[in-house]
Amino acid sequence: MKKTITIKRTAHYHILQPKGKINRLLIAIHGYAELASDFIKNFDVLQNTNILVVAPEALSKFYNKFRKPAASWITSHKREDEIKDYINYLNLLLKELKSNYSFDHLAILGFSQGVSTAFRWAAQLNDKDIELFACSGSVPPELTAEDFKINQLKKVHYFYGDEDRLLAIDKAKTQIEFIKTLGLEVEAHPFKGRHEVSKSCINLLRNS
C-alpha cells in the first residue's frame, strides 16, 4: 500500500543584485541538468540595470554524465507530486522576495525544461502584468486558456535558435501557435544559435 507524507526541504536560490534601484524582479528558471549557480551567470550584464535576478534551483539532484552535481525540475515518476512541490516552492520564494525587496514589475524566464516549469507556475499566479520569457523549451500540453484566467500574464516572449538540436524550428513554431490558444499574447524571437539563452533575450530584458 502506497502512502505519502509531506516534509520540509531546504531549497537554494541565487541572487544577482543590480547596481541601480530595483524596479523589476526576474525569476530565472534553469533547464535540465543545470545548477542555479551556473545558470545565473547568463545574466551578469543585468547588474548594470534595475533588475533583481533570482535563480531558484530545482529540488531534484543527481550526477550528470561528467559526475558533477546537477538538478532537474521534474521526471515522469510521480510527476504530479513534483509539479505540486515545485509550485509550492516557487510560491514561497516569491513571497520571501516580496517581503525583502520592493519592485514594480515581475518577469519570469524559463530555459529548456524551465519553460514548462515557468508556464505551470505562472498559470496559478495572480500578480498583475507578468511578462514571461520562454527560451528554447516546450509549453506543458495540459494547459488551457482556462488556466490563465485568474492572472494577468501580460505577454510571452518566445525565443528559439535556428541550430537547436533539442528544439527543431517546426516544433518551436508549433509551440508559438499553442501559446496563442491559451489566450496569451506571444511574440516570436528567432535567433541564430543553439540551445541557449540568447543574447537577443538578454538585450530585450536589459532595454525593456
Features:
about 210 residues, 9 strands, 7-stranded mixed β-sheet, about 25% strand, Rossmann fold, about 30% helix, single chain, alpha/beta
Number of helices: 5
First-residue to last-residue Cα separation: 53 Å
Strand elements, count: 9
State the name of the first-level CATH class.
Alpha Beta
- Range of helix content: 25-40%
Strand arrangement, largest sheet? Answer: 1-3-2-6-7-8-9
Q: What is the rounded Rg?
A: 17 Å
Number of folding domains?
1
Fourth CATH level, the homologous superfamily = Alpha/Beta hydrolase fold, catalytic domain
CATH architecture: 3-Layer(aba) Sandwich
What's the main sheet like? 7 strands, mixed
What name is given to the CATH topology?
A: Rossmann fold
Task: Spell the H/E element sequence.
Answer: EEHEEEHEHEEHEH
What is the arithmetic mean of pLDDT? Answer: 94
Give the low-pLDDT segments: none
Q: What would you call the shape?
A: globular
Structural class: alpha/beta
Strand percent estimate: 25-35%
How does this model look, in words?
β6, α3 and β7 form a beta-alpha-beta unit. This protein has a single domain, classed as Alpha/Beta hydrolase fold, catalytic domain (Rossmann fold, 3-Layer(aba) Sandwich). It has 208 residues and is α/β, with parallel strands linked by helices. The chain is built from five helices and nine strands. Strands 1-3-2-6-7-8-9 form a seven-stranded mixed beta sheet, sandwiched between helices. Strands 4-5 form a two-stranded antiparallel sheet.
